[in-house]
Amino acid sequence: MELRQLNHLLAVADKGTIGKAAESLGISQPALTKSIRSLENALQVKLLERRPRGVFPTTYGLAVIDRARSVRLHLQGLASELQALREGAAGIIRIGMAQGVASRLMPRATMRVLAKNPDIRISATTGVVDRLVALLKAGEIEFAVTPFFGSGSYGSAVVEDFLFEDRPQIVVRPRHALARHAQLAPQQIADCRWILSGVDTPLRRAFDRIFVSQNLPPPTPVIESDSVIYTKAILMETDFAAFFPRDEIFVEEQAGLLRCIPVKTNVSTRQIGILRRRAETLSAHARQLVDETKAVCRDEGYVTEAKPASRDTSNKR
Asked: How far apart are CA 148 and CA 317, in angstroms?
């Protein structure tokens, strides 16, 4: 098995046809087909199968492609670090983050790392947890800071490292009728006009648990959206209410554009943590960013109660 063959397999997986893959690689279709067959012979499994709409990986192919992407990421990281050393720089960190940690926690952790390593570069991607996990498994990012469901929700290839328990709050504009309250009970907010995240997100599940704990039906939102910008715009112009981590509206709250109000509840809401691939070593600067993220959590009061330092997700789904 050769790295060249793995790159050929990845090209077919990315392009969907032998023709497009061969064109992207700058080789002939017969040469690409021969390379894939040679790889199949070496591994003694069939990796691709032809269908009317193109070429698709088999179960074996998916397993090899997953590993091949990881290998490619590590080789790209090695090349980047070597180039950086030649140029006197320090390389690049590729990370993912949920929007809830992108306004305060991760910027502050990032600036701590940059203060110590001014020459490094950081590639940061935001998204919902399912997208971040997909990027992580594909080897596109080294780790992700995000809410997670726990209990091995992402399979045995992903390890969860707990950071803190997040308690999102009700968010309204300052002129909203609820804005005069210092705290709200679930009964007081059941009839609001809501704009909420989708039903399969950690944030929405946390919201629903508040009402279920009081034997109340969770409210049905008027609007469902995974866009923070869209949601904030509606909140600032109308009497809608939303459910956000306080960090997510940190800038708007400081500017007096939105207000956060805690909900009176003992229900656990969301766990925030770091997701990384099992049995893969982070680059030195990625490890430093992880350490600084944990330090910011300690220094700025994110950690409110003791939790296991890490959680192995290999037991059950």
From this structure: 13
